[in-house]
């Protein structure tokens, strides 16, 4: 910043065409600041209050990195004229360079009162605000710096990070599109990290690729590149990048885990299994690889293998509540409900802070025709942890226990399901049950809203289609009702099997987050 400031300020100082000023400026610009000082000192003996001479001497000392000496001259100039912008500006720059951000901020703010559009003052204040995590103010100053922040990668990255800090990810991504290809590897890595953090994975992959250019064997850049390829849907590139790291000797569990995900997306389930097995063997005390492997088995309905892997994991990590939870899910998928119940009870004891074990146990109680016990369990859990899964299955359990129309239990179910939908609106099932209860109470418009949204999430959901047809019929819209009834030959109540398996899959999804 000092070099840029000098280049900008010198023309203003020599605009009077004074020979001594021109010569001094030329010496400073050509890297001969000592000659400038020698030329100007006699002038200061003759005219001690010559503002231009004092400021030029200060700039000459700044060029030699003698900032304290330089600042004495800038302060002398300001004592003579507190509103002399060139001295104020260079003093603030030096203060920032030596780490005195508080004084620099004061002087830059004073400079902006004299020259409100000064781009360097705005850029400097932006950096000061960023360091103090005043992101909104930082963004505002960066944007008033006449795009100076776009010229240097560090400022560009700080601007993007500040935008993320004020929840303006699109602006951050747009700015980082200006990253110069010749920036160094660390800068490209930082830009890629920002982009990955805002889920701009394709752009992040480009930055991580450039980061690897500086050191093709660098693991961090290569791993993040592989992950960015995976998250951006470039599965072939992810596998290629991951294998390249393996060929360089990087046999890390996390790398095999990411490769497994890419293989699965390619439809190479066997390769995915082997990659996760390798990850688990490399790090046998890390439950995450067992969990991902079990989830993969369950997804492909290979429940026996899921139980085998869960057994190995539990043997190695007997205190892992997550492993007991997933072993319980595998038992449930094989309809071994008593075994599943025992595993879920163990999961609750080992991980009382997680709701997943409680919800899974509640599902088993429903499956075993014990809805009252499920209600008691989930009602108690909902008092301390009102997450969407607990609330959803509390509503399901209350409904399964039997709800008299207009009863307090029916209202409790409506309240629980409404809160569940508010917490996570991306799941269809709680909306469908909520709509059913609302329609029963005559709240047809709200029921229609929830059912329409449920069908956006699951267009082929028969229960939602049938219920929406009933709502249209009750509202007198026979034409729309007939259209929907044509899609289903008869009412299809939600099957217990669908609820149990769908709920367990949702628990698997939540456990992987």
Fold blueprint:
Elements: H1 2-13, H2 19-29, H3 33-46, H4 51-63, H5 67-80, H6 85-97, H7 101-114, H8 119-131, H9 135-143, H10 153-165, H11 169-176, H12 185-197, H13 201-214, H14 219-231, H15 235-247, H16 253-266, H17 269-282, H18 287-299, H19 303-316, H20 321-333, H21 337-350, H22 356-367, H23 371-384, H24 388-401, H25 408-423, H26 428-440, H27 444-457, H28 462-474, H29 478-485, H30 496-512
Helix pairs in contact: 1-4, 1-6, 2-3, 2-4, 3-4, 4-5, 4-6, 5-6, 6-7, 7-8, 8-9, 8-10, 9-10, 10-11, 10-12, 12-13, 13-14, 14-15, 14-16, 15-16, 16-17, 17-18, 18-19, 18-20, 19-20, 20-21, 20-22, 20-30, 21-22, 22-23, 22-24, 22-30, 23-24, 24-25, 24-26, 25-26, 26-27, 26-28, 27-28, 28-29
N-to-C series of helices and strands: HHHHHHHHHHHHHHHHHHHHHHHHHHHHHH
How many runs of DSSP E, i.e. beta strands? 0
Can you tell me the CATH superfamily of the domain at 438-512?
A: Tetratricopeptide repeat domain
Radius of gyration, taken over Cα atoms and rounded to an integer in Å = 33 Å
Beta-strand percentage range: under 5%
Q: How many helix segments?
A: 30
CATH class of the domain at 438-512: Mainly Alpha
Named CATH architecture of the domain at 438-512: Alpha Horseshoe
- Biggest sheet statistics: none
Question: In whole angstroms, how far apart are the ends?
Answer: 44 Å
CATH topology term of the domain at 438-512: Serine Threonine Protein Phosphatase 5, Tetratricopeptide repeat
Morphology call: elongated
């Amino acid at each position: 910043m000092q070099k840029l400031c000098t280049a900008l300020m010198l023309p203003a100082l020599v605009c009077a065409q004074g020979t001594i000023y021109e010569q001094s400026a030329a010496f400073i610009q050509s890297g001969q600041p000592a000659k400038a000082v020698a030329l100007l000192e006699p002038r200061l003996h003759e005219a001690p209050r010559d503002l231009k001479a004092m400021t030029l001497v200060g700039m000459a000392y700044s060029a030699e990195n003698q900032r304290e000496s330089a600042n004495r001259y800038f302060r002398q100039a300001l004592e003579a004229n507190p509103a002399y912008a060139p001295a104020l500006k260079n003093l603030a720059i030096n203060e920032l360079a030596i780490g005195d951000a508080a004084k620099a901020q004061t002087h830059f703010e004073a400079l902006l009162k004299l020259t409100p559009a000064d781009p360097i003052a705005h850029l400097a204040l932006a950096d000061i605000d960023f360091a103090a995590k005043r992101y909104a103010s930082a963004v505002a100053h960066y944007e008033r710096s006449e795009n100076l922040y776009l010229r240097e990668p560090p400022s560009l990255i700080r601007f993007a990070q500040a935008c993320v800090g004020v929840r303006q990810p699109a602006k951050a991504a747009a700015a980082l599109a200006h990253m110069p290809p010749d920036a160094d590897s660390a800068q490209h890595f930082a830009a890629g990290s920002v982009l990955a953090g805002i889920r701009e994975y394709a752009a992040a992959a480009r930055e991580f690729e450039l980061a690897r250019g500086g050191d093709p064997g660098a693991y961090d850049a290569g791993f993040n590149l592989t992950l960015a390829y995976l998250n951006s849907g470039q599965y072939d590139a992810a596998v290629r990048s991951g294998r390249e790291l393996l060929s360089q000797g990087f046999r890390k569990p996390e790398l095999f885990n990411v490769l497994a995900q890419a293989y699965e997306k390619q439809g190479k389930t066997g390769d995915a299994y082997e990659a996760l097995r390798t990850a688990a063997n490399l790090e046998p005390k890390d439950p995450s690889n067992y969990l991902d492997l079990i989830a993969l088995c369950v997804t492909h309905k290979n429940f026996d293998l899921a139980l085998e892997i869960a057994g190995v994991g539990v043997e190695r990590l007997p205190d892992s509540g997550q492993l007991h939870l997933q072993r319980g899910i595998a038992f449930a998928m094989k309809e071994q409900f008593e075994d599943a119940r025992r595993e879920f009870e163990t999961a609750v004891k080992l991980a009382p802070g997680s709701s997943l074990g409680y919800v899974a146990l509640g599902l088993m109680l429903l499956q075993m025709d014990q809805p009252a016990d499920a209600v008691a369990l989930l009602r108690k859990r909902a008092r301390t942890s009102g997450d969407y899964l607990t609330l959803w299955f509390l509503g399901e359990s209350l409904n399964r226990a039997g709800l008299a129309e207009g009863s307090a239990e029916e209202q409790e179910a409506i309240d629980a399901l409404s809160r569940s939908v508010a917490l996570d609106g991306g799941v269809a099932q709680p909306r469908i049950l909520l709509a059913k209860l609302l329609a029963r109470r005559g709240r047809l418009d709200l029921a229609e809203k929830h059912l329409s949204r449920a069908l956006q999430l699951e267009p082929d959901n028969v229960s939602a289609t049938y219920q929406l047809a009933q709502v249209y019929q009750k509202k007198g819209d026979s034409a729309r009702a007939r259209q929907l009834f044509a899609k289903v030959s008869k009412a299809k109540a939600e099957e217990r099997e669908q609820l149990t398996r769908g709920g367990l899959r949702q628990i698997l999804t939540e456990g992987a987050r």
